[in-house]
Amino acid sequence: MSEITKLEPKLVWEQFDAITRVPRPSKKEEKIREFLVEFAKKHHIDYQTDQTGNVVMRVPATKGYEDRPMVILQSHMDMVCEKNSGLAFDFEKDPIRTRIEDGWVKAEGTTLGADDGIGMAAALAAMIDPDLEHGPLEALFTVDEETGLTGAFGLGEGMLTGKYLVNLDSEDEGEIFIGCAGGVDTLATFRYRAEEAPKDHVFFRVEVSDLSGGHSGDDIDKGRMNSNKLIARFLWNAMQRFDLRLSRFDGGNLRNAIPREAFAVLSVPGSETSAFETFYKEFAEGLKSEAKFREPKFRIALAGAIVASVIDREAQRKLLYALVGLPNGVIEMSMAMPGLVETSTNLASVKFEGEDRIVVTTSQRSDSESAKVYAMQMVESVFALAGAEVIHSDGYPGWSPNPESKLLEITVSSYEKLFGVKPKVRAIHAGLECGLFLKKFPHLEMVSFGPTLRGVHSPDERLEIATVTKFWDLMVEILKTVR
């Protein structure tokens, strides 16, 4: 066990420590699912699984609470797997290495997985805490929340029987969420012909790194730079001045993460090398100036490279014009809830795949279904004009707020009772599984809350220790109070 097991509430941190030792990449949740089933068996808890891979556990009410309504504690099994470049780490085999620093729990060079490992830990602790008073409880653990909401989409019949659902997948202590954005992914495929590298050209690798990244929903309004956009801008400008040939472009990994790193391999004629290097220095200085207050750790570097082939000129032109022209970031702010992003889009990744295609992945979000569709159409239009093949994911619905919810009333009054202040009640621009649950179970009343997390979906992810106690105490009070 690590040092985090000495923290309070001890039972929660012990479960979280155990979870960090189990590999659980999205779409590869076999080991964490086995962990959950073994946990249920060990503690003699009734459990059920479905064909999608979700797990639900059920415990009866404690004495005197038999007449209370069933409450569902919901979290997701998978985690975003991001690491610092150069770090030797296998997310399918290696345990997360945690450490305590300045009141936060962090990981060593990787995502921590507190999204949503801490939610899982709280639910498991509630299942076995002998001192907790509650009515009948269900704990639902879904698969693949991060890359497709697959578990929520495929939730089996009879997996949920409760009236109230508490989603444990939020990131700001003191805030109660009662709504979220819907989303859809748009993928564009560019076809190219590989050509022999020009003999008289000199090759370079340009790389952007050390950006903040973060969650493409919750962090999209924080002014963070997108590494794919920066590399595309550099290449576009260089292409206007030099006989540039592109060999490779690689940036970002996950649709729901703001990309932190990207690189491209390119060439210019040997006779233009000196002018190109001067151009690079000037352009880099311009980016550094832009990044001064937005991305203090921003790095851009140029180095030599050796390659055998480049992509054809027409494919290069179409790709770079599309990447520069794509909307990225906040599109509209909400008029209904000041300070909330209504609609956004994220240029998530650019990948060379196979020997003849480049796949660009983007993600659109909005709490307005029509605005979500419009954002998707804007992105598709840019790709289509560039001649790319465009497809969209099925998407997922948003969660419309219900300010008259009984569960919300109980949650707010419980928070006031415990901490002497009112919590903020708001919606979130990130996607939660609640919209899909509500579509399947229209009778549900739902709230979402959690401890404070920062740097989610990046190796800077950290969990504020003091807020875990408040998170746990609020959940315990709600379970004791709900009627």
UniProtKB/TrEMBL annotation:
**What are the protein's GO molecular function terms?**
metal ion binding; metallodipeptidase activity
Q: Taxonomic classification, please?
A: Bacteria, Pseudomonadati, Bacteroidota, Bacteroidia, Bacteroidales
- Cite a GO CC annotation: cytosol
Superkingdom, according to UniProt?
A: Bacteria
Q: What is its EC number?
A: 3.4.13.18
Bilayer-crossing regions = none
Q: Please write the reaction equations for the catalytic activity of this protein.
A: Hydrolysis of dipeptides, preferentially hydrophobic dipeptides including prolyl amino acids
Q: Which GO terms describe its biological process?
A: proteolysis
Signal peptide as annotated in the record: none
What are the entry keywords? Answer: Cobalt, Hydrolase, Metal-binding, Metalloprotease, Protease, Zinc
Cofactor(s) it depends on = Zn(2+); Co(2+)
Annotated protein name in UniProt:
Cytosol non-specific dipeptidase
Give every Peptidase M20 dimerisation domain span. 214-292
Q: Which family does it belong to?
A: Belongs to the peptidase M20C family.
